[in-house]
Each structure stands twice: as C-alpha cells, then as structure tokens.
Amino acid sequence: MNQAREWIHCNNAYSLGLTGKGIGVAILDTGIFPHRDFDDRITVFRDILKKRALPYDDNGHGTHIAGIIGGSGASSSGRYQGVAPGCSVISLKVLDHRGNGYASDVLAGLRWIREHGKEYGVRIINISVGSFHKRGMSEDSALVRGVDAAWDAGFVVVVAAGNNGPGSRTITTPGISRKVITVGCSDDDKEVDVAGNRMIDYSGRGPTSACICKPDIVAPGSRIVSCGARQSGYRVKSGTSMSTPLVSGAIALLLERYPDLTNRDVKLRLRERAVDLGLPRNQQGWGLLDVGKLVE
Known about the structure:
Blueprint: H1 2-7, H2 11-15, E1 24-29, E2 42-47, H3 61-70, E3 88-93, H4 103-116, E4 122-127, H5 142-152, E5 156-160, E6 181-185, E7 192-194, E8 197-199, E9 217-219, E10 224-227, E11 234-237, H6 240-257, H7 263-273, H8 281-284, H9 291-295
Parallel strand pairs: 1-3, 1-4, 2-3, 4-5, 5-6, 6-9
Antiparallel strand pairs: 7-8, 10-11
C-alpha cells in the first residue's frame, strides 16, 4: 500500500497536514475487523446480514478496503498506512463470508446511509463490489438506481469497475452508472492473483451498454498490502477493489481541505487533475489519480 501511495503522489497532501480528519467514509463490503490500525475511528458498524452489534469480518475483503482508505499504519510503524489515516470509518456488512451478496442487502445499506449517514459525517461511499449478470446491466437496474439515489442525496459514490476486462462493455453494475465515480486499475498489465485466479488485463472497460465512457479514473490495484482480519496482520490483494479505496481516500483528503465541495465538484476536479496515461478512454478514463494535484 505504501508503494501505491507513492505512485499516486500523496506526499504533497501530507505536507499540508491532511489526513482526512472529520470526513466519514462508508464502506459497503464484508464488514471490518477491529484492527489496531483503525484506532478508535470505526464510528459505526452495521451488520445488514446477521444484525450483530460488534464489528467483524468473516472474509477479510472489507477490512483490506478499509485499511487502504484509512489505516493508520500503527502495526507496521507507518509502512502500510492508508491514504487518509485520520478519516472516520463507517462499515456496513452487506456481503457474506464468501464475499457474495444480494442486491437487496446492498440497497438496504445504501438506504441506511441516505437516512443516517450525515448524522455520522459520511461524505463518501466506497463500493468495491459489483455484479456482471446480464439482467442487471442496464441503467434501470436496482443497484444503479440505488447508487444514483445516494449521489442525488449529496454523497460522493466511488465504485469499482470490476475485474472482467479486457473486453469492451465489461464494467460491472453499479459502476455503469453515469453519475458515480467508477474506478479502474492502472497497473493491470501485471499478472496477479485476483480472488484466487491468475489474471492480467482484468480491469473492466467501457463503454457501457448506454454508450457511456467508463471507467472515470484509474489507480493502482496490483499487490496492494493492507490490513488483514486479525490484530496487527496485513495481507496482499489485487483488483479494482483495491484501486477504488485509493480514490475514496484521496477524496477524503480533498474534502478535508475543501469541505464545501459538492460531489459534482469532486468529480470535475478528479477529471481536471488526472494524469493522462495515453491509453484508450474506455481503459484509463480521464487518467491516473494524482493526489498531490487533486488537493493543491
């Protein structure tokens, strides 16, 4: 994760004293393990599946995502620090121990955020999961309507492009939404293990079935080190799931510095400050995330 932070040029943001403090990031995933790196910053844990009260993660994916966004690096002497180590974490468990789930549970999580998120300072929603079923690949699908409703309520919604590339029209739902910020992987030219499979050139590519160019932006996603689901432990994972929280963490830094920005302002600023990699628009979006340029 530290190497990824170097690639996206976080140092300029840290020189300004930015850590994401005061910014809540809601993570819809497999839950969260109370790793030492989260200190006391797990503001809310909501278990949509089993209604358990205390934080847990029976898969590890959600904890890894949360660490990329906001891990303090306390267990590694700062080596594996997240992008926004001062942000508040709001974890909603919507996926089971296999990392699978139902659209209805994701929608319940989104509904909870719309109703209660502002009470807990939520500005950003990170969704590092997606569906590639044909019946859900239209902009009228329930998941797209759900993320669009959250966007319309003022939240910055950041969604993974999925790992079904390199063909066209391989962006997963709800990343096909034209409103949300869809994140692809900038370094999927490396062969890595993605969910137990050796993959290369896996990042989802547009256009969508509605001919919308996607993804919007890319960030590193190969061999990212982050928090594991045990005290002081770390794990390596790859995929657009890991690229997405890098962008969410960067946005937390941006909103700490410029708290009056709207979600539309954030999206426009990402477009203006991205670094063109010279790749096709439906592969790189606007380009590579550059945190230093984003917050300057």
